[in-house]
Write a structure and sequence with these properties.
The structure holds two protein chains of two kinds. By secondary structure, chain A is an alpha+beta fold. Chain A folds into five domains: 143 residues, HPT domain (Four Helix Bundle (Hemerythrin (Met), subunit A), Up-down Bundle), CATH 1.20.120.160; 120 residues, Histidine kinase CheA-like, P2 response regulator-binding domain (Alpha-Beta Plaits); 60 residues, Helix Hairpins; 180 residues, Heat Shock Protein 90; 131 residues, OB fold (Dihydrolipoamide Acetyltransferase, E2P), CATH 2.40.50.180. Chain A is 44% helix and 21% strand. Chain A contains 21 helices and 22 strands. In chain A, a hairpin with a 2-residue loop joins strand 16 and strand 17. Chain A is elongated, with a radius of gyration of 37 Å. The two termini of chain A are 42 Å apart. In chain B, helix 3 packs parallel to helix 4. A five-stranded parallel sheet of chain B has the order 2-1-3-4-5, with helices on both faces. The termini of chain B are close together. The chains are: A alpha+beta, B alpha/beta. Chains A and B meet through helix 1, helix 2, helix 3, helix 7 and helix 11 of A and helix 1, strand 4, helix 4, strand 5 and helix 5 of B.
Chain lengths: 676, 119
């Protein structure tokens, strides 16, 4: 990551703001209500994006943000007016999409070359429409304001004219400093402390924007009288920021162009008081306290490095404390210190893991947008319920579940939920409901996507699977779950017609692949007419797991503790074999197949008699079996390392780890062993 | 003595931009605040020579913060960071005693010019 730090911050902030904005917009659109706080928020986000993008020279983004800012400025100023929510938020959301798209181009080292012209045009035409509808109110407003600015009263008009000197100053500002009229106003305002009788040209520096050009061309001419010394005045005027040129002259009489003003006896006022009040109302005091204060953002690659390092420390700690050289030695003090070290490394590990944990809320809330867009297109009214969004999982895992989740939500909307008429006919509420739920269960996190749609058609799934040769057993022999799990197989799609969103054949198998890759499992439940529920079980973290070390011949394997139900020493007569030689064991009246690890991995071992070794009963979602190993070594926390890329298709192996003595242990992939 | 600056802006990007530009030109940035409220707190502790205040910020805007800072320290030198179209608010800031203002988007040259009077 050698990107320029400024750009890095820009990308990070823009992405974050867009997501924030998207959420607010969808919320507002849904409730058909837009509160002061939301308006201010959207306005502020656009304002920030406008400026940052302009500074990074991403003009298309800046221009678009500017036009949206204008739009919300208008809405803010004309509260309570009728707003065309549909069009407004369609525009805002397309705006967000555009900016997101451009930012992701920038992120991938591309050019932000998209054109925002159409969106800008849309925005200005929407603004025009709104202005037209609200025209009368604006008229009233502007007349009020005009009146205010006509009152010019000097706060220093009295005072004795004795001992006062008249001065004339001409001020030029630096090119490109902008808002010259307000800068001129600053001069007048500050002179009031020492001068009275102030006249200036251009005259109208508050309302008129022409004065800006005037000041750029001719400078700001100001005449005043004061009893202060010339040096003092000069010093004060020289402090003006962006001052390019100052001419200050002591005069007997003001030049003719200022004299004209004098005759009119125009009086200068501190400030149109009414407009000030209006401004105050614009920003109502918010009571939220700064929650971002105590949070810093860290590049994820640094966290990865930290995690790697902690992994190494965990391994090294085991290498030291379990060093073969120490065997048989009386080491009371050493052991004490080693225990302390172990305690600290454990704490360190916990903290590093917790740093990497992020709540699923972001990923969940992204689905709001999909539900909104698809619901609109398919003309289905859908409510998205989110439960347990504060549930945390490792950052690496979050990245892997976003796509599958999106796919599942799309499926639910497209195939699961019925058309309005169908729902009404079957006595369901018109509005469909999709629930996203996350919860912790032991070392796992469950992510559940539930809908109250028509449910899966068990019969047609079975038929189709049979037709494609995916199942051999009779329908009665299979549980519902087993039948439903066919939809996860590659090439399976029950939907005959391809819609815009799903049914293109790439589907659930991709979801399964994604979830498999992070060691998760999927299970499907459904009842016809009432809806379906797809739960994804994923590990909290990929990096460090609790494992049981087992020995097979000279090799060592690690079985993840979470998939172990029990381990025991079998008796000879408990093991039975069918006519094909497949071994099985009865445990409390249930038969489990036996897989001998030495057979699976072709390892030479002395331990072959079923009463010599140990049985480890493992399970995943639906299946369970006994693994036959030589002996148990012990329970240990292991740091998972991926297999080197040159070892492909190691079926049954999920990864490897380095043991305390420097040996390598292979980590078993229980679900793939059970799938044999 | 390098002049010490406190930067206030809700956008991290803006804070970093301004910080880089000021530090390259002989100013010391001694603190950053992401809203007006924090700016006031930090101003009281750090007592900077100059404080920059963005106008549009959540929780407390720049003008409001300026008023508080001015009440605490009459001689406070505050540079407002504003955008085109905010004339009315800038004027309010001037009345509240803002030393000057800079318009976003700005470049390094603009910042150098604006701050040259404050060195």
């Amino acid at each position: 990551m050698s990107r320029e730090p400024m750009l890095e911050v820009y990308i990070f902030e823009a992405t974050q703001l867009m997501e924030q904005l998207e959420e607010i917009s969808i919320e507002c659109e849904k409730s058909k209500k837009i509160g002061t706080e939301a308006i201010n928020e959207i306005f502020r986000v656009m304002h920030t994006i406008k400026s940052s993008s302009a500074m990074m020279m991403f003009n298309n983004i800046s221009v678009l943000a500017h036009s949206l800012e204008d739009l919300f400025y208008f809405i803010r100023e004309n509260k309570g007016e009728t707003i065309d929510f549909e069009n407004l938020f369609d525009l805002v959301l397309s705006g967000i999409d555009f900016i997101k798209g451009e930012v992701s181009k920038i992120q991938n080292n591309g050019e932000a070359d998209g054109s925002s012209e159409i969106l800008v045009l849309k925005s200005s035409s929407l603004l025009r429409n709104m202005k037209e509808t609200n025209a009368e109110i604006i008229k009233n407003d502007s007349t009020e304001q005009k009146e205010d600015t006509k009152h010019y009263i000097s706060s220093y008009q009295s005072g004795d004219e004795e001992g006062k000197q008249k001065y004339v100053a001409r001020i030029f500002y630096e090119d490109g400093c902008e808002m010259e009229n307000v800068r001129a106003y600053t001069v007048v305002h500050n002179l009031k402390n020492i001068a009275n009788e102030i006249y200036h040209l251009p005259k109208d520096i508050i309302e008129s924007n022409d004065s800006v050009e005037d000041i750029r061309k001719n400078g700001f001419l100001i005449g005043f009288s004061t009893s202060e010394r010339k040096e003092k005045i000069e010093e004060q005027l020289n402090e003006i920021i962006f001052l390019k040129e100052l001419e200050l002259l002591q005069v007997e009489e003001y030049p003719p162009e200022l004299k004209v003003l004098k005759r009119k006896k125009e009086i200068i006022l501190d400030q149109p008081i009414e407009t000030m009040k209006i401004n105050k109302e614009e920003t109502p005091p918010l009571t939220i306290t700064g929650k971002q204060q105590s949070i810093i953002s860290v590049n994820i690659s640094k966290l990865d490095m930290l995690l790697d390092l902690v992994g190494e420390i965990v391994i090294t700690e085991a290498m030291v404390t379990k060093n073969p050289d120490l065997e048989g030695l009386q080491l009371e003090n050493f052991n004490k210190a080693a225990r302390q070290l172990r305690k600290l490394t454990n704490e360190l590990q916990d903290i590093v893991m917790s740093i990497r944990m992020v709540p699923v809320s972001m990923t969940f809330h992204k689905m709001n947008r999909i539900v909104r867009d698809m619901g609109k297109k398919l003309n289905k009214e859908v409510e998205l319920e989110i439960i347990g969004e504060e549930t945390e999982v490792d950052k690496n895992i979050i990245d892997h579940i976003s796509d599958p989740l999106m796919h599942l939500v799309r499926n639910s909307l497209d195939h699961g939920l019925e058309e309005k008429e169908e729902r009404i006919a079957s006595g369901k509420p018109e509005m469909g409901k999709i629930t996203l739920e996350a919860k912790n269960a032991g070392g796992d996190v469950f992510i559940i996507v539930r809908d109250d749609g028509r449910g899966l058609d068990k019969k047609s799934i079975y038929e189709k699977a049979k037709l494609q040769g995916l199942v051999t057993k009779l329908e009665e022999e299979l549980t519902d779950k087993e039948i439903f799990s066919n939809i996860l197989l590659p090439g399976f799609s029950t939907n005959e017609t391809v819609t815009e969103y799903s049914g293109r054949g790439v589907g659930m198998d991709v979801v399964k692949k994604n979830i498999d890759s992070i060691g998760g499992t999927i299970s499907i439940e459904s009842s016809r007419g009432c809806g379906s529920e797809i739960s994804i079980k994923i590990p909290l973290t990929l990096a460090i797991i609790d494992g049981l070390e087992v020995a097979v011949g000279k090799s060592k394997y690690t079985i993840p503790i979470i998939s172990i139900r029990e381990s025991f020493k079998p008796k000879e007569n408990e093991v039975i074999a069918d006519s094909d030689g497949n071994e099985m064991i009865m445990i409390r009246g249930e038969a489990f197949p036996i897989y001998r690890l030495h057979r699976i991995f072709n390892i030479k071992t002395e331990v072959t008699g079923s009463n010599e070794g140990i049985m480890v009963l493992v399970e995943d979602n639906t299946k369970a079996a006994c693994l036959f190993v030589d002996s148990l070594i012990g329970e240990q926390q292991v740091v998972v390392k991926a297999l080197p890329t040159y070892i492909k298709k190691a079926k049954g192996i999920a990864g490897c780890t380095i043991l305390g003595d420097g040996n390598i242990s292979l980590i078993l992939d229980v679900s793939s062993i059970l799938d044999r | 003595m390098m002049k010490r600056v406190l930067i206030t802006d809700d956008a991290a990007f803006m804070r970093l931009s301004l910080k880089n530009m000021l530090e390259r030109n002989g100013f010391e940035v001694i603190g950053e605040a992401e809203n007006g409220k924090i700016a006031i707190e930090k101003y009281k502790i750090l007592k900077p020579d100059i404080v920059t205040l963005d106008i549009t910020m959540p929780i407390m805007d720049g003008v409001e913060a300026l008023k508080h800072i001015k009440a605490f320290d009459k001689s406070a030198k505050a540079i407002m960071i504003s955008a085109m179209g905010q004339e009315t608010i800038v004027r309010e800031a001037v009345m509240a005693g803002a030393f000057g203002f800079v318009i976003k988007p700005f470049n390094e040259e603009t910042i150098v010019k604006a701050f040259s009077k404050l060195k």
